[in-house]
């Protein structure tokens, strides 16, 4: 091959290329703002809503401070208008076959592809985020989400038989968010037939653009409505008649917490500081920039965190090519922070990395699980077995092995603890917006006549403090805590009468101290119970079923005294035993599945226990409902604090005598974790008494990514 010498002109070209790509032009974003005369209102029912006499806030470039547009702030009547539009659209949207909704979502994906430059330019211009992050990540994944949920909608009638859409969904977005996080929630809601009202913070034009693209598609203008307003409108939206669920979207300002083994601490810190020094910060529209800006408020937040960390003894390293203007903050490494310091438990703001050393894997697991959040984590190790062991033990929703940040529409994404309990992506994300067919609509949950500050703090005066008249026909039942009966702290009880009004017995009336004791006992028992092999949990459920069958005559007699015919009472006992055996069989399967996420490798979908569950049993079907709620909770490895039927608690107490592994407390004011809103439930029917909803409520999903390649 002949060699040629580059002339002066060629050297000049090569030199100019070293400085990276030309910044993205924001002309298309400004042109779109011009179509609204630089005044953005709300997008409701397929058209722009700009009511008069509304306050407005400026939408500014976070770097230059230039006013890009003014945004009207909604009031209560605007929220009501948006909800009513969504309720009207829900009637037709939910009635259409799933394939029609799928076609609409697929068309929306094509529209986003057509206007993708406008989307990523507007998002980067307004938020200051690096355009590469938005262009190559958010916009592409948003299209994938729409295509995936279009397919899910097309197969809904077969795959999700027995479920129906909830209705109108209220979506609350925080001051800092990405429109991709909004898409993770909108796509499954629309796919299953729900409609959405999104309340976005002021000066957030990207969700309005997305709503406009959806509304201009054609026959379903009111399925996505976006209103812009302050946080004071959140209770207004939540209390609107017709709102069936309120979903929240987390903030975008979470940083990283890094745990490094002591044997590689020095080398890892050296490499990390070296890499941080090469990061480029600047205007988000510059394609060569690694880090954009988040505005003055985000800078103030991170400055306060760093100052507090330094005051608590931490060392701080800052590096990077960072402009001196205020909106930019250098990538920061915080180390040597005492484990007990407040900053060690606080949420890490962007762009900060908090690094801490550890000696053993057990210590690393304790440090990681010792924080109040449980969103996602990655494990990096050459020893795959140890990495998998840590991945299983981490109390988070998503774990990546030797990778980080991978996302796929078919893989569920969620969290635990303070990171929330909702799920997005995969089948889990669809169930978030579905309810069993025939479930009554949710009514407004806010009562004007109820004092929420004092509710539940005092014992109602109608409850007797002790036995009233005559001797008890049997010794009074105490509280079942830690595997044994014990007297309540207040030494109070209440009478239980049969269907004829005759005294049947007394049960202990628990108080706040008893609740705390029951929860503590359940927490102590949880590690051992959750650590049991599925077969061991199944064996105990089958043993409890056998105990019920041995006490069939006694339990049936109890039911008969409550007005149940003898044959029906015997049938309830038999069905309760069958439920326990059925959940024992499911406990062995556990629901773990393995799926392949595109070319990224397999993902293990794990079903893990929630922890300590609080369950309040309904009055109907006192034995069967108790067993139907208890069995799935135990099958998935949870421990339980249960309140039996208020009208007939003796049956549940009889069951406790035959099982030493149920953590129990009889208390009248324990807050339930899942309620049926006072509606009757057909516990004797398979769908409502032992259907998939109970399994979904009894466990959480963890996605364990096992990517292939380098």
UniProtKB/TrEMBL annotation:
Range of residues in the leader sequence: none
Domain Aldehyde dehydrogenase: 48-251, 257-435, 498-656
Molecular function GO terms recorded: oxidoreductase activity, acting on the aldehyde or oxo group of donors, NAD or NADP as acceptor
Top-level taxon of origin: Eukaryota
Protein name as annotated: Aldehyde dehydrogenase 16 family member A1
Annotated organism of origin: Rhinopithecus bieti
Gene: ALDH16A1
């Amino acid at each position: 091959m002949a060699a040629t010498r580059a002339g002066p002109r060629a050297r000049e070209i090569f030199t100019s290329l070293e400085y990276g790509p030309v910044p993205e032009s924001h002309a298309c974003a400004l042109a779109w703002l011009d179509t609204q005369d630089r005044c953005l209102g709300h997008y409701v029912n397929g058209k722009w809503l700009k009511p008069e006499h509304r306050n407005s806030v400026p939408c500014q470039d976070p770097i230059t401070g230039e006013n890009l547009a003014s945004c009207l702030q909604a009031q209560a009547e605007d929220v009501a208008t948006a909800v009513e539009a969504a309720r009207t659209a829900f009637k037709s949207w939910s009635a259409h076959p799933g394939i029609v909704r799928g076609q609409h979502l697929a068309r929306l994906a094509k529209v986003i592809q057509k206007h993708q430059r406008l989307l990523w330019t507007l998002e980067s211009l307004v938020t200051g985020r690096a355009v590469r992050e938005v262009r190559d990540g958010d916009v592409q994944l948003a299209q994938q989400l729409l295509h995936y949920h279009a397919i899910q909608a097309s197969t809904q009638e077969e795959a999700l038989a027995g479920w129906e859409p909830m209705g109108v969904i209220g979506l609350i977005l925080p001051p800092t968010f990405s429109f991709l996080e909004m898409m993770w929630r909108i796509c499954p809601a629309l796919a299953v037939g729900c409609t959405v009202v999104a309340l976005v913070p002021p000066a957030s034009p990207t969700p309005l653009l997305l709503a406009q693209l959806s509304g201009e598609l054609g026959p379903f203008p009111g399925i996505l409505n976006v209103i812009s307003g302050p946080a004071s409108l959140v209770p207004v939206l939540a209390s609107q008649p017709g709102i069936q669920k309120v979903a929240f979207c987390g903030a975008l300002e979470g940083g990283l917490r890094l745990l490094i083994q002591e044997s590689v601490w020095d080398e890892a810190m050296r490499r990390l500081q070296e890499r941080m020094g090469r990061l480029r910060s600047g205007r988000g529209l510059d394609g060569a920039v690694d880090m954009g800006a988040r505005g003055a408020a985000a800078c103030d937040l991170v400055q306060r965190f760093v100052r507090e960390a330094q005051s608590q003894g931490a060392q701080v390293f800052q590096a990077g090519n960072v402009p001196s203007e205020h909106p930019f903050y250098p990538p920061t490494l915080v180390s040597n922070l005492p484990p007990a310091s407040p900053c060690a438990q606080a949420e890490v703001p962007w762009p900060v990395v908090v690094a801490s050393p550890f000696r053993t894997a057990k210590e690393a697991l304790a440090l990681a699980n010792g924080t109040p959040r449980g969103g996602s984590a990655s494990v990096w190790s050459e020893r795959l077995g140890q990495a998998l062991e840590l991945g299983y033990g981490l109390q988070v929703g998503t774990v990546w092995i030797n990778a980080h940040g991978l996302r796929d529409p078919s893989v569920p994404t969620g969290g635990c603890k303070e990171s929330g309990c909702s799920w997005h992506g995969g089948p889990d994300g669809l169930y978030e917006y579905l309810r069993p067919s025939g479930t009554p609509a949710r009514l407004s949950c806010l009562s004007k006549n109820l004092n929420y500050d004092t509710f539940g703090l005092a014992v109602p005066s109608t409850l007797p403090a002790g036995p009233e008249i005559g001797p008890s026909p049997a010794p009074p039942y105490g509280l079942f805590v830690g595997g044994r009966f014990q007297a309540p702290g207040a030494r109070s009880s209440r009478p239980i009468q049969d269907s004829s009004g005759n005294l049947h017995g007394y049960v202990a009336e628990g108080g706040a101290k008893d609740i705390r004791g029951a929860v503590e006992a359940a927490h102590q028992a949880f590690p051992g119970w959750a650590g049991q092999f599925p077969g061991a949990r199944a064996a105990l459920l089958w043993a409890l079923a056998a105990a019920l069958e041995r006490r069939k005559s006694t339990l049936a007699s109890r039911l008969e005294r409550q007005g149940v015919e003898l044959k029906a009472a015997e049938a309830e006992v038999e069905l309760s035993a069958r439920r326990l055996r059925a959940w024992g069989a499911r406990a062995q399967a556990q629901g773990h599945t393995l799926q392949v996420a595109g070319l990224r490798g397999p993902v293990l979908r794990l079903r893990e226990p929630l922890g300590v569950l609080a369950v309040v049993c309904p009055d109907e079907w006192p034995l069967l409902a108790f067993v139907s709620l208890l069995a799935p909770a135990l099958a998935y490895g949870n421990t339980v604090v249960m309140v039996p039927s208020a009208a007939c608690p003796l049956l549940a107490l009889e069951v406790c005598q035959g099982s030493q592994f149920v953590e129990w407390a009889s208390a009248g004011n324990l807050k339930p974790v899942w309620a049926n809103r006072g509606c009757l439930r057909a516990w004797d029917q398979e769908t409502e008494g032992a259907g998939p909803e109970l399994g979904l409520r009894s466990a959480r999903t963890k996605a364990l990514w096992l990517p292939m390649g380098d």
